[in-house]
Specification:
With 419 residues, this protein is α/β, with parallel strands linked by helices. 32% of the residues lie in helices and 20% in strands. It folds into two domains: 2-59 and 175-249 and 353-416, FAD/NAD(P)-binding domain, CATH 3.50.50.60; 89-166 and 253-344, Alpha-Beta Complex (Polyamine Oxidase, Chain A, domain 2), CATH 3.90.660. α1 (13-22) packs parallel to α13 (389-406) and α4 (134-145) crosses α9 (300-309). The structure holds flavin-adenine dinucleotide. The site of flavin-adenine dinucleotide has 43 residues, from α1, β13 and α13. Flavin-adenine dinucleotide (FAD) binds at residues 9-15, 32-35, 40-42, 55-58, 60, 193-194, 221-223, 226, 231-232, 253-255, 340, 342, 347-348, 351-352, 378-379, 387-390, 392.
């Protein structure tokens, strides 16, 4: 049996950050990843000469984002063009007056969440009955949370909002490419899904189809949906972790990319919401980085319905919505390049976590170590930067710091804890 001091399970942003923290320390460690690539939900594909992010794309809270810092230190160019999320290209189907009304509806909703939060902690209960922009608010919740407002904890939502800095940057070379390349030189084993962790003996044993690995300590950095459906099991079981993970499900957000022939009439870095009166609408980012491409985004119930329809459904829906807004000529000018289907990927089962109503405290429950030898990391473990790649990074570093303390290789430092 192979043996290491620390085994890190899951090669996404959190697992990679944990492994990086161990570099240069006096211990042996290994990062095991089920799939044949690193990065997890950070995934850049190069298509038609463009690096396209099928998972995370925006360096949120970029002014305090450790991935932005790493990009800067590595000399990687950062694009600081502000996002166009609140704009509608040429006011198509959404006049300026309507955009203002819809924005005010969102602001009023947010004020109600803060000033008079529903006793149930369920965000949908803060909707104003009959407000004509409720569909728009649902569409936004789909993009932001990957879930309908009826599935959303107010306390959790506000914990994120209170910490985000609204500074959002991008990387032309891809956020996924930055994150996966951050693992260069680290000890990694790809194609090694951990099925279960035996914690009965003094040494932990992680079982993979390629054999078992013994470890004094393990950092578990897999998505909540994997833990909730026991895609990774513990023996004896850890029901408090399975339950916490189930109450922090991954919502669904998907992307699709369309190559755009004759892009010149479209101003780069502009946005179109397909239909602000439809909660299942797509949102379309026109010509990011001035490229001849449209990045399509689907969230929540709309994303789920399209994914259930099967491969190609999101791309076809996007083309129809864009033709409706921009004219029938567009049908010939758009070529499908790629689409994500994160809900159907067994190693993920969704896109990013949200807390169900009343369950915001589950993030701390999930993040708590077991017996000072099983540690948890991953975006869902962050109490205020969840659902992001930088939140994942922080939890990975926090878990690694806790392991170093437990092994007597570092002193406790409360400032290092992920919030
Ligand atoms: C469409 C989309 C858009 C997004 N947009 C943004 C954005 O703009 N900005 C942002 O900051 N964030 C965004 N996110 C969220 C961000 O990508 C994630 O929060 C972050 O990448 C999660 O990192 P993680 O390490 O917690 O988990 P993951 O990236 O999911 O990594 C977990 C790893 O564990 C592996 N694994 C699973 N089971 C096992 C097992 N049994 N054994 C071994 N390995 C296993 C998986 O294969 C995976 O590689 C987006 C996500 C999606 C899907």
């Amino acid at each position: 049996m192979n043996q290491v001091d620390v085994l890190i399970v899951g090669g996404g942003a959190a697992g990679i950050a944990a492994a990086r923290r161990f570099q240069g320390e006096q211990l042996s460690f290994l990062l095991v990843e089920a799939s044949d690539r690193l990065g997890g939900r950070a995934f850049t594909r190069k298509l038609a000469g463009m690096e396209l992010d099928l998972g995370c794309g925006w360096l949120h809270s970029a002014d305090r984002n450790p991935w932005a810092k790493l990009a800067q230190e590595s000399g990687i160019a950062i694009d600081r063009t502000p996002p166009a999320w609140r704009e509608q290209f040429a006011e198509l189907g959404f006049s300026l007056a309507e955009q203002r009304e819809a924005a005010e509806a969102f602001a009023a909703f947010d004020r109600r969440l803060r000033d008079s939060p529903p006793a149930s902690d369920c965000a949908a209960e803060a909707l104003e009955p009959g407000n004509r922009w409720n569909c728009y608010l649902e569409a936004l919740s789909g993009y932001i949370n990957g879930a309908e407002l009826s599935q959303l904890s107010v306390a959790d939502f506000l914990a994120y909002e209170d910490r985000e800095t609204e500074v959002n940057w991008r990387l032309q070379g891809g956020y996924g490419a930055l994150i996966s390349s951050a693992a260069d030189g680290l000890p990694v084993s790809l194609g090694s899904p951990v099925g279960w962790i035996d914690r009965r003996g003094s040494l932990l044993e992680a079982h993979t189809p390629n054999g078992s690995i013994g470890a004094k300590m393990v950092i578990v950095a897999v998505p909540t949906n994997v833990l909730a459906r026991e895609g990774l099991r513990f023996d004896p079981p850890l029901p408090e972790k399975t339950e916490a993970a189930a109450d922090l499900p991954l919502g669904l957000a998907n992307k699709a990319f369309l190559q755009l022939d004759r892009p010149e009439p479209f101003e780069p870095d502009t946005q179109l919401i397909g239909d602000p009166r439809n909660p299942a609408t797509g949102a379309y980012y026109l010509r990011p980085f001035a490229r001849p491409v449209i990045e399509c985004f689907f969230g929540g119930a709309g994303a789920r319905a399209l994914e259930a329809e099967g491969e190609g459904a999101a791309l076809a829906f996007a083309v129809d919505q864009l033709v409706g807004l921009l004219g029938s000529d567009m049908r010939r000018r758009l070529t499908p390049l790629a689409e994500s289907r994160w809900g159907s990927e067994p190693l993920f089962g969704g896109s990013y976590s949200h807390a169900l109503p009343g369950e915001a405290a589950c993030r701390a429950i999930l993040a708590a170590p077991v017996e000072n030898r099983i540690y948890f990391a991953g975006e869902a473990c962050s109490r205020s930067d969840f659902s992001t790649a930088h939140g994942a990074y922080q939890t990975g570093v926090a878990a690694a710091e806790a392991v170093l303390v437990a092994l007597g290789l570092a002193h406790p430092d409360e400032d290092q804890a992920a919030d």
